[in-house]
């Protein structure tokens, strides 16, 4: 998605500038007006896009390095360091790793007159909209150190959750890969040893065995073409995944898959409620919070429903009513958020809802891991065992013919 630099007037007559990621300049103008600003100029910033995305295959900073930078910045600011001095120290710190050039750019932008929030917004692929929004709130309120400390803690919690999910999926992935390897070895190296004997004696073969023998012969005769075709498919998938919107399309597809849609609903609910609680708890107003959440939730699919919910709230509607109409969250989550609105404790209740659905997500993944692994083993054992029985039956018939 392209980046656009803009200049706009506030209601008090001050000129502000910043960067937004949007599909068109018209969308940028709409978002600026949504923030009650008067747009002056909007231009596509191709340089910023290249700077934010041109890290190469191995040069892109990791999420852990960004988290380390955030927490170290909070510590330095709490210790009394000036913002530019803290950035100068971190630009040479090995702990932030591949983020050091970006930290140097942040300091250069700061010395050039930009605010820290604007400098961070110039790198949208590294610092998401919520990050730059909270940094802006911290700068305006004079609590940047506390905001960065909270951001660092929240990022660390999210990364721990992602690691837990990744670890949970490693075992079934390993089992599936191992099963595929066993099948490939059997088809390419074991089955051909018997197929020649069976063909010489003209033994009658069942349908499954004949199909696997034909597959084995085809793969062995076209090994080079098969390898090139596999490499081409992998390269095509990799290229498609790197295209803008690919992640959203994949999540959209998986979220409609029976048996998986519930897991994605848990993930979507926890993501929305967690970010809602963090933004509101940091002092961001509800309308601005929802505008940021639209960008965040777009990766989970159905961006139109999130945009419609944000528009209803902007026109005076209640958040719970807007979410109920959009049907983007489970009814229980909507009821909890309605209770938070009525009691004035929406940030706290949003955080509790997020924790509740994160726990449900983890339990669901544990159940899937417990099913997929054994199911893959049983399936591959059944297929290989059936083939062995078919081969042995054919060999016994050959023995009877010889005798």
Describe this structure in words.
It is built from 17 helices and three strands. It is mostly helical and 403 residues long. The protein folds into three domains: 1-54, Ubiquitin-like (UB roll); 59-127, no CATH class; 143-403, Receptor-associated Protein. It has a three-stranded antiparallel β-sheet with strand order 2-1-3, with helices on both faces. It is elongated. It starts with a strand and ends with a helix. Residues 48-53 have low confidence and may be disordered.
Question: How is this fold's topology laid out?
Answer:
Blueprint: E1 3-9, E2 15-21, H1 25-34, E3 38-44, H2 46-53, H3 63-78, H4 83-90, H5 100-111, H6 116-121, H7 129-141, H8 144-200, H9 207-221, H10 223-242, H11 246-255, H12 261-281, H13 286-297, H14 303-314, H15 319-326, H16 331-343, H17 346-402
Antiparallel strand pairs: 1-2, 1-3
Helix pairs in contact: 3-4, 3-8, 4-5, 7-8, 8-9, 8-17, 12-13, 12-17, 13-14, 14-15, 15-16, 16-17
CATH class of the largest domain: Mainly Alpha
Compute the gyration radius: what is it? 28 Å
Largest sheet: 3 strands, antiparallel
Q: Please state how the strands of the largest beta sheet are arranged side by side.
A: 2-1-3
- Please give the domain count: 3
The low-confidence runs, each spanning 5 or more residues with pLDDT under 50, are 48-53
Going by CATH, the homologous superfamily of the largest domain would be Type II secretion system (T2SS), domain F
- The number of distinct β-strands equals 3
SSE run: EEHEHHHHHHHHHHHHHHHH
- Average of the residue pLDDT scores: 78
Count of helical regions = 17
Q: Per CATH, what is the topology of the largest domain?
A: Receptor-associated Protein
Which descriptor suits the 3D outline? elongated
**Proportion in helices:** over 70%
The helix-and-strand class reads mainly alpha
**Into which percentage range does the β-strand content fall?**
5-15%
| Cα separation of the termini | 74 Å
Q: What CATH architecture of the largest domain would you give?
A: Up-down Bundle
């Amino acid at each position: 998605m392209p980046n656009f630099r803009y200049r706009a007037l506030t209601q008090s007559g001050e000129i502000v500038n910043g960067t937004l990621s949007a599909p068109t300049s018209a969308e940028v103008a709409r978002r600026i007006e949504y923030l009650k600003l008067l747009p002056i100029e909007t231009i596509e910033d191709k340089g910023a896009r290249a700077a934010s995305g041109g890290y190469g295959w191995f040069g892109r900073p990791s999420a852990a390095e960004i988290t380390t930078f955030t927490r170290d910045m909070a510590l330095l600011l709490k210790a009394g360091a000036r913002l530019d001095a803290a950035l100068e120290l971190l630009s040479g710190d090995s702990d932030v790793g591949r983020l050091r050039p970006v930290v140097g750019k942040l300091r250069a932008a700061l010395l050039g007159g930009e605010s820290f929030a604007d400098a961070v917004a110039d790198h949208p692929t590294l610092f998401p909209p919520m990050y730059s929004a909270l940094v802006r709130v911290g700068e305006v309120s004079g609590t940047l150190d506390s905001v960065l400390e909270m951001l660092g803690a929240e990022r660390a919690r999210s990364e721990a959750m992602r690691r837990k999910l990744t670890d949970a999926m490693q075992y079934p992935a390993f089992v599936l890969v191992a099963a595929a390897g066993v099948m490939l070895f059997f088809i390419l190296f074991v089955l051909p040893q018997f197929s020649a004997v069976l063909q010489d004696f003209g033994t009658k073969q069942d349908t499954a065995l004949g199909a696997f023998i034909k597959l084995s012969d085809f793969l062995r005769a076209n090994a080079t073409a098969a390898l090139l075709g596999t490499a081409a498919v992998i390269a095509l998938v990799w290229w498609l995944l790197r295209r803008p919107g690919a992640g959203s399309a994949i999540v959209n597809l998986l979220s409609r898959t029976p048996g998986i849609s519930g897991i994605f609903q848990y993930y979507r609910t926890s993501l929305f409620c967690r970010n809602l609680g963090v933004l509101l708890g940091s002092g961001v107003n509800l309308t601005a919070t929802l505008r940021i959440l639209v960008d965040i939730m777009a990766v989970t699919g159905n961006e139109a429903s999130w945009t419609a919910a944000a528009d209803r709230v902007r026109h005076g509607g209640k958040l719970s009513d807007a979410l109920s109409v959009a049907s983007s969250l489970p009814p229980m989550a909507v009821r909890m958020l309605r209770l938070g609105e009525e009691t004035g404790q929406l940030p706290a209740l949003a955080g509790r809802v997020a924790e509740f659905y994160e726990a449900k997500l983890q339990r669901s993944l544990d159940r899937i891991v417990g099913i997929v692994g054994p199911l893959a083993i049983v399936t591959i054992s059944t297929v290989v065992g059936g083939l062995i029985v078919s081969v042995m039956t054919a060999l016994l018939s050959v023995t009877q013919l010889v005798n």
